[in-house]
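Cross-check.
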Amino acid sequence: MKNLRTHGKSTIVWVLMGLMVLGLGGFGVTTFSGGSSAVGSVGETEITADQYGRALRSELNNYSQQMGQHFTMAQAQAIGLPQAVQGQLFGAAALAEEARRIGLSVGDERIAQTITAVPAFRGPSGSFDRAAYADLLRRERLTEGEFEHEVRQDEARMILQRAVAGGIVAPEPVVNRTAGWILETRDFTWRELTAADLPHTVEDPDQAILEAWHQANAPRFTAPEVRKISYIWLTPEMLADTVELDDAALRDLYQARINDYQQPELRMVERLVMPSAQAAADARARLDAGEITFAQLVAERGLTLDDIDLGEVSQDQLGVAGEAVFALDGPGIAGPVDTPLGPALFSMNAILEPRNIAFEQAEPDLRAEAAADRARRIITERSAAIEDSLASGASLEDAAQENDMQVGLIDWTQGFTGDDHSTIANYPAFREQAAVVVAEDFPQLFELDDGGVFALRLDEVVAPALRPYDEVADEVLADWRQAETLRLLRQQAEEDRVTAVAAATLAPANGDGNGAAAEQDDTAASPPATPGTVQQNMGRDGWIEGVPPDVIARAFRITEPGDAEIAEAQGRVFLVTLDAIHAADLSAEQAGPVLDAVRMQAQRSLQQDVFDYFTRAIQTQAGVTINQNVINMVHTQAQ
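Predicted model, tokenized:
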């Protein structure tokens, strides 16, 4: 659901976001020669190219930050981003037009409050800085008057928005019906059908049937596209054995990391400072008597455990309390102790053993780390020479020989994933390039995530092809068996379903003799005729270990107790029989959060719908114009 505030706040948000991002460039009217500089209007309220440009560029920048790479205009157009931005701007313009028509506005004091609260306009002291304000507006090609006019319009739009949607609430019958649906539970019985439930063993077919199956299901027996790729690469691991390391440098590294190897005994401690020595003594007495816990004592003082947490501390760090706390041989309470902050109780929650790893013990790890680091620096230094070799037209093989790199060949297919660096195909960076490289590409250097580098060349593309039957005969037979078994299981499940429903239908007549069922709060039926696993009071969001979620979903699609349905998922077949439906108790305490969430969601949805209808009505009444030429110019500048 769209946030309702975006319609009213969109312009100022985009403007302010644009001001906080340097180097975005402006879309001033001076970039357009002749004609109108507006992308469109609602009535007499125009949307300038400058406004549209800032809004669009801000959205492009947001997507780039989320993706971690440049988000192009072409990508934006592919997902309809320009149209979404235009829709929001035209919605905002509709509100501005209505505010103009009815004479709605806000005073200068309100505008000043809004502008001075913007973080982008604050100076080093944290208060509003007029110089920063003027400088940022100048870089965005906005005058103070233009910007303040947009802020004034936006404030007026917000007043309209609150007037239109503020009083709308969700009808309680809708809330209760929805919450009841969510919280309803059911009893049902499920049974998985397997090959053992079939009356006959699945017999293997003759070769003619298998060959026909092979042809009819060709995609399952087709070899994927193979990209034959040559590559060269160099990783820190390849250089680790050749790197010379100075023992003195290793000892320096050990000293720089001494806290990782040498650490005194630490204890996890919380300190509660009391108002007086008597209060501390009384609190300790209550703790010793078991009248109160330490957490409850903290709460009495109006604090939380986070407020008093000292973390992992040494005896020296605790100062005068160190001896008392470290005298404990296990978690417990120490004190009262007179501290510089006053009398305090200390809760010791865990003991962290001292760490004493000598240099000789740490040396292998330090050496490996230092060697890898040195190897990465060597690769960085060599990269320029490798790039020069490739740029000068050298082949991969020649570049590898000149720069002591390894050469490799790989038959790469789409969809490969790996979890180690034993082969180059396990590197995500290589897989990304292998998927897009074409024969016409000149080799270039790319980085690996461990500090290595590589370059690649596409030698040949082998198109997907149906593998001959003789090569995949065993696979074809296994595939046919699986499909045939599944077909027979569906057939058997349908027979069992009919039997179960018939048994449930006849059951009431065998109860009290007249077919009438006793009145109960829950709608219930007799147990299913087929054996299975009974699930009681299962909610819609429940789960059964080892069973596909579709089984539970199917149980909640059955409308009458006693009915049964077939659930098929992940190549497995289940028979599900509904035993009882338990209506939700909306007066229960646990129903409260669900009711609140449903009420809020329904209210937002209704407010959004009403607000959309309101803005559309304004646009229809006032009229909308669109200047596609100016829009296209903005798109061109946003490339």
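The longest strand covers residues 342-352. The radius of gyration is 36 Å. Passed to J.P. for a second look.
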